Amino acid sequence: MDLKYVLYSTEDGIAWIRLNRPDKLNALNHVVFDEIGQAVAAAAADDDVRVVVLTGSDKVFAAGADIEHMSKGTISDAFKLTDGSFRIQESLADIPKPTIAAISGYALGGGLELALCCDFRIASETAVVGLPEINLGIIPGGGGTQRLPRLINYSLAAEMVMTGGMVKAEKAERYGILNRVVPQDQLMDEVKKLASKLMSKSSVALRAAKTAMRKGLNVSLKDGLNIEQDLFCMLFGTEDQKEGMAAFLEKRKAEFKGK
Fold first, then answer.
1. Which of 238, 188, 199, 162 shows the shortest CA–CA distance to 58?
2. Which of 99, 131, 198, 201 yields a CA-CA distance of 20 to 30 A from 210?
3. What's the rounded Cα separation, in Å, for the pair 213 and 228?
4. d(C-alpha 177, C-alpha 157), whole Å
């Protein structure tokens, strides 16, 4: 991979995707999105990777889109930017492995939208989230008007989108945007703790759980229950299901192999 604004590394089953554009507060543009896409694809293809973590710096996760670049844009440019961001965001949202956004500092606009694509969001006490696009005479264009109302109360999402106000970590946790908030110096330890817990589970069962929930969000309850049933039954053909139930009956820790 030829990456300039994204740092990618793997360690102990975790793929780390770190936004690295400090002079622009990790602002997002088509180049950054392309590099995120490369990193996500690498994590998806690596069988040794069990969990993916997306993060920024201690001071900022991502302060949104590159406004200087956008200010000169046309309608055509806006379509190109959003088409590209949607493609990358969907690849992150759909990767068949658990994803964690580790948020410190500002996660605004496209930064928050990117974090909303992850399965979990853990933040430091310094985190501030928001969708301030309305203050620029536009609306969120990277999924904010769709993912946020699906995640939290509609009225709370409407307040964030329509006022453009910023929300500090503690309130964002109460809203349900963040899974939990921890002291700054404990953020990565908390992320690794969650990643370790996820890696102790069956990877094939985690994939099924994620598929059931994501697909179920976009269909009727009845169709969602059918999706769940199919995936539930499919797992009875896996080695991990046999191992998990045998371990339970034998009162020992299961040793899953992802098969």
1. 188
2. 131
3. 8
4. 10
> Tokens representing 259?
């098969």
Instruction: Check if the beta carbon of residue 32 is closer than 8 Å to that of residue 85.
Output: no
Sign of CA dihedral 226, 231, 237, 243: negative
Q: Is 133 a catalytic residue?
A: yes
- CB 32, CB 5: distance < 8 Å: yes
- Catalytically annotated residue among 113, 159, 190, 228: 113
Does the annotation count 90 as an active-site position?
Answer: no
Q: Is the Cβ–Cβ distance between 57 and 26 less than 8 Å?
A: yes
Q: Which residues of 64-90 are buried (b: 16+ CB within 10 A; e: fewer)?
A: bbbeebbeeeeeeeeeebeebbeebbe
Residues of the chain with pLDDT under 70: none
pLDDT at 222: 96
Chain mean position to CA 94: 10
Residue 179 per-residue DSSP state: S
Q: What is the pTM of this model?
A: 0.94
Catalytic residue (choose from 11, 35, 125, 133): 133
